[in-house]
Amino acid sequence: MKRFTFSIIYKYTTLYASVSVPGSFFLINEISGRISLKGQYNHHEHHFSDFLLRKLVKINSEKKYELTEKRLTNMAQNVRRLCLFFTFILIFLLIATPLFAKKTTISFWHILGYHVKSVIEEMIDEYNAEYPHVDVKSDFQGFFEDAQVKMLTAAITKQLPDVAQIPFEFLDSYVENGLIGPIDDEIPGDVRNDVMEKMWEMVSRNGKIYGLPFCAITDVFYYNVNSFREAGLDPTVSPTTWGELVEMGKRLSRDTDGDGTIDVYAMTFYLNGVYGLAPLLWANGGTFLSEDGKKINLTSPEMKKTVSMLHELVFIHKIMPRTWTDWESAQAFLMGKIAMGWFISAGISFNEQNLPWEFRVSHVPRFNGKRSVTLSGTALVNFAQKKKKRKATWDFMLWLIQKENDIRMYERIGFLPLRESSLNSFELKAYAKAHPNYRVPLEVLEYARPLPHHPEFLKINHEISKMLQRIMLEGADLKEELIKTEKLINSMLD
After folding, report:
1. In this structure, which topology does domain 104-216+378-434 adopt according to CATH?
2. CA 153-155-159 angle, 5° bins
3. DSSP string covering 320-336, please?
4. Cα separation of 340 and 253, whole Å?
5. Phi, psi of 185 (to 5 degrees)
């Protein structure tokens, strides 16, 4: 509660009053006191219950004043009116200032669609209702890569929004080009201590923080319980090793209509470049970048082994479709035409609510005795420059990641909690206990790793994606494609 204390000097009179402002309500505190007069009525005192007067009249000790009770009462009434007048003026100013103040408009570009978009816009509506002096205007910019192109275009034309979602792995280009600076000094201590260190690592470069983590995701393994039953497999057990994945996959891939062609495949794999390859490559002991981070490395033994493992699923084991794109495979999974595969945690709620068959989430299989998954997501980045706008934008960003919203994004979508207080809350633990699919992302946090980042990540990922599609969908030579793509990317980085 804010308290305003003021004093008014009227001739030889000092008045004291205080006003308390709880929210939008005003309460005038009772002002009590007395008038003390010295002179002819040397010890005369008159008490009032609603105002305090001290030294009401300065009396020259050599003069005598006849102060009657009527004069004393009139003086008190005049002072009372004056006190009330200034009190009402103060109240009017306190009320009128926010009413007539101009709203601060904040432009927010977000990049997550489908079921996530509606939740984010719901939160924005709540914020605008709770803070009427601010007007947050949301603008969906499309998905990761499309949004990144729009953002870089806006940077060139100097039309960046006040705040935007930037994928963790794209953050470097903004740092390298001086579009954003460190925000360590702006982060409140309680937020800095409560958000998990693993999340701060996502938005840090060279030991400095450049954004607030928001909408963090990880890899999990989805499978169709109905397909497992139909194939004679235990629906409570998903593959735990690469060998089990292949063996179970052979039973799950079936010709259901007897025409000699497989129409239900065991699995799908995300061919979108670094995102799909990273977990397998890490498990095989490989990395994408050279030690100094300046060159791409696609011809290492570990990379060749990783891509060969995927290639065998299509061309040797035949448990993964050869001609289906990522989009087509995702649609096939929804229709029950693919039984299992790598997906992100943010799809859990959508699948539970929309799939016509029983859906389950588990850990990804181990490779070489290791489980590897990516830790990705977005950063909230403040591009506002003017002091007032930047402060308003910062307040909105902090509100988005407060504990209540952090838990909401976990329960409503499947995003990872950002805060220790959220992770340890009774509400989140109770929800995870009642919804087993949501427990897996929490357990995965232990071994999740951030994707590699580079100022040219967008170009690197685009070329690796095209390489994988040529190998998997068009049957291009694996070794030649690795050599050719490595050379192409490194020429772009020089």
Report:
1. D-Maltodextrin-Binding Protein; domain 2 (3.40.190)
2. 95
3. S-SS--HHHHHHHHHTT
4. 11
5. -70, -15
Cβ neighbors of 186 (< 8 A, separation 6 or more) are 394
In three-state secondary structure terms, 6 is strand
pLDDT in tens, 385-420: 999 999 999 999 999 999 999 999 999 999 999 999
Going by C-alpha positions, the residue among 219, 217, 263, 266 that lies closest to residue 239 is: 266
Distance CA(60)–CA(44), nearest Å, equals 17
Which pLDDT does position 423 carry in this prediction?
97
Tell whether pTM > 0.90.
no
Per-residue pLDDT, 75 = 55
Report pLDDT for 156: 87
Q: What is the 3-state secondary structure (H, E, C) of 164-232?
A: EEEEHHHHHHHHHCCCCCCCHHHCCHHHHHHECHHHHHHCEECCEECCEEEEEEEEEEEEEHHHHHHCC
Give me the pLDDT at residue 22, please: 35
Q: Report domain extents, the chain.
A: 2-100, 104-216+378-434, 218-375+450-493
Tell the burial category of 302 from Cβ atoms under 10 Å away from its Cβ (0-12, 13-18, 19+): middle
Structure tokens given for 14: 């000092």
Report domain 218-375+450-493's class: alpha beta
Give the DSSP letter string of 334-397: HTTSEEEEEEEGGGHHHHHHH-SS-EEEEPPPBBTTB--EEEEEEEEEE---SHHHHHHHHHHH
- Integer CA distances (angstroms), 312 to 220, 285, 457, in order: 22, 19, 28
Position 3 scores a pLDDT of 38
Residues with pLDDT less than 50, the chain = 1-67, 72, 93, 96-100
How much is the pLDDT for 373?
A: 94
Task: Report the distance separating Cα 111 and Cα 283, nearest Å.
Answer: 30
Q: Which tokens in the block code for residue 362?
A: 């588990």
Question: 3-state class of 62 per DSSP?
Answer: coil
Residue 28 and residue 15 in contact, taking contact as beta carbons nearer than 8 Å = no
| Nearest residue to 348 (alpha-carbon basis) of 222, 207, 183 | 222
- Token representation of residue 262: 């497989």
**Three-class SS state of 236:** coil
Cα–Cα nearest to 273, from 459, 488, 57, 441: 459
Domains 104-216+378-434 and 218-375+450-493 share a fold: yes
Beta bridge mates, 134: 104
As a 3-state breakdown, the chain gives helix, strand, coil percent values, each rounded to 5, of: 45, 20, 35
pLDDT of residue 195: 98
